[in-house]
Amino acid sequence: AVMGHIPPGSRSTSLVQVFVLGIDPGLSRCGYCVLSVGPRGRSRAVAVGVLTTPVDLSTPKRLAILQRDVRELLDDYPPSAVAIERVLFQVNVSTAMSVGQASGIVMAEAAGRGCDVIEYSPNQVKEAVAGYGSADKEQMQEMVRRLLGHSAVLRPADAADAAAVALCHVAYAPSMVTVR
């Protein structure tokens, strides 16, 4: 056989699936969206939802529940990258704290597995998905729907926000999500 020649019929037809996990962090409601990224950055959502924790439990117990759920998500869909919305401003200090704690849990779990972890500001997400940084929630949800080819807007809003963050990463960092 010629060196480097691949006999007919033995070509591998299996494509490596590349996942990007988008996260809209929160302790009560943590939105997530797993995108399968294909050739030329074409993306489809393979898992979308919201991880919730019971508000009547203590914060450490809620963080432990979130950590377990995030681990399961990372086990089920091992991502090459995890994109998280960065919280820049929050009127309620306790909300800001819990969002930061939830964000830290996700970042630590992802980084511990060797995933690239990238934070995007709300304006970066809006710019990448809708084309301008002051897009409103309805415009964002409609653009997410179109980009993913869905017939209806993603619900709940936390899941749609997570999808926007994942789509933002695919738009900004195509070299990081190419099929290796």
Radius of gyration using CA atoms only: 18 Å
H-E order: EEEHEHEHHH
Based on helices, strands and strand pairing, what is the structural class?
alpha/beta
Q: Residue-averaged pLDDT, rounded? A: 86
Q: What summary fits the major beta sheet?
A: 5 strands, mixed
* Total E-strand runs: 5
**In DSSP terms, counting alpha (H) and pi (I) runs of 4 or more, how many helices?**
5
Q: pLDDT under 50 segments (min length 5)?
A: 1-14
- In whole angstroms, how far apart are the ends? 27 Å
- What percent of the residues sit in helical stretches (DSSP H or I)? 40-55%
The assembly state of the depicted protein chains is single chain
Shape: globular
Describe the SSE topology:
Layout (H helix, E strand, L loop, with lengths): L17 E7 L4 E9 L5 E10 L6 H18 L4 E5 L7 H20 L3 E5 L1 H9 L6 H12 L8 H16 L8
Parallel strand pairs: 1-4, 4-5
Antiparallel strand pairs: 1-2, 2-3
Helix pairs in contact: 1-2, 3-5, 4-5
Structure description:
- The chain has five helices and five strands, in the order E-E-E-H-E-H-E-H-H-H.
- The protein has helices spanning 59-76, 93-112, 122-130, 137-148, 157-172, and strands at 18-24, 29-37, 43-52, 81-85, 116-120.
- Strands 3-2-1-4-5 form a five-stranded mixed β-sheet.
- Strand 4, helix 2 and strand 5 form a beta-alpha-beta unit.
- The radius of gyration is 18 Å and the shape is globular.
- The model is unreliable at 1-14 (pLDDT under 50).
Question: What structural keywords apply?
Answer:
single chain; 180 residues; alpha/beta; five-stranded mixed β-sheet; 5 helices; 42% helix
